[in-house]
Write a structure and sequence with these properties.
The structure is a single chain. This protein has one domain (about 1-25, about 35-185). The protein has helices at about 1-20, 25-30; strands spanning about 40-50, 60-70, 75-85, 90-105, 105-115, 125-130, 140-145, 175, 175-185. A 9-stranded antiparallel β-sheet has the order 8-7-6-5-4-3-2-1-9, with helices on one face. The protein starts with a helix and ends with a strand. A hairpin with a 7-residue loop joins strand 6 and strand 7 (about 140-145). It is about 15% helix and about 40% strand.
Length: about 190
């Protein structure tokens, strides 16, 4: 029930955003056989997972995202993060701007960059892959760039396949609480 209401809410938000964001474009385009929502790519939801990697085993992570890519390729959205130690102590939390979103089937890959001056890290980027599990659990893969001398890349990087050579393969984590809706343009 949560997943279906989340999908309906996300699709309604996308349809509304399309009307508000670009009414002239919507009116100028000839009717297409697909629905208005099918012309957009989106990812929306909030999920919790727990790292099991050496040095971060038991760290609890919450990621929230609401992002849309229009047919013209423009992406808009926000990403929220919270990182807790196993005892519940806060390591960090904040928000980032989604700069890129690509959806293929039930998989969303997006990039979110922390704005300058927000938070304690400099030049911080999140590279996230969400696999919408349908009626099963969703899965998530993430990688981060932080404290570099330059702004991190803003284009989409798949954390499973686009990591620089020498970095370990990133694991997929099941979403334990919450979930995500992924919808791709057709």
């Amino acid at each position: 029930m949560f997943r279906s209401s989340l999908r309906a809410t996300a699709l309604a938000a996308v349809a509304a955003a399309g009307v508000v964001a670009s009414p002239a474009v919507a009116q100028a385009q000839p009717p297409e056989p697909m629905s208005a929502a099918a012309r957009w790519s989106l990812v929306a939801g909030m999920g919790h997972f727990v790292y099991d990697e050496p040095g971060t085993a038991g760290h609890r992570i919450w990621f929230g995202v609401q992002a849309v890519t229009a047919t013209d390729g423009s992406t808009h959205g926000h990403f929220l993060y919270r990182h807790e130690l196993p005892d519940g102590s806060l390591v960090g939390q904040g928000r980032a701007d989604v700069t890129c979103l690509k959806v293929t089937g039930n998989v969303a890959v997006f990039t979110a960059i922390v704005p300058e001056g927000q938070g304690t890290v400099k030049n911080h980027g999140y590279y996230v892959k969400i696999i919408d599990g349908g009626s099963g659990p969703d899965q998530i893969v993430d990688a981060q760039a932080q404290n570099g001398t330059e702004r991190p890349p803003t284009h989409c990087l798949d954390p499973e396949t686009d990591l620089p050579p020498g970095n370990p393969q990133r694991p997929r984590y099941p979403i334990l609480i919450g979930g995500y809706a992924v919808h791709g343009a057709e």
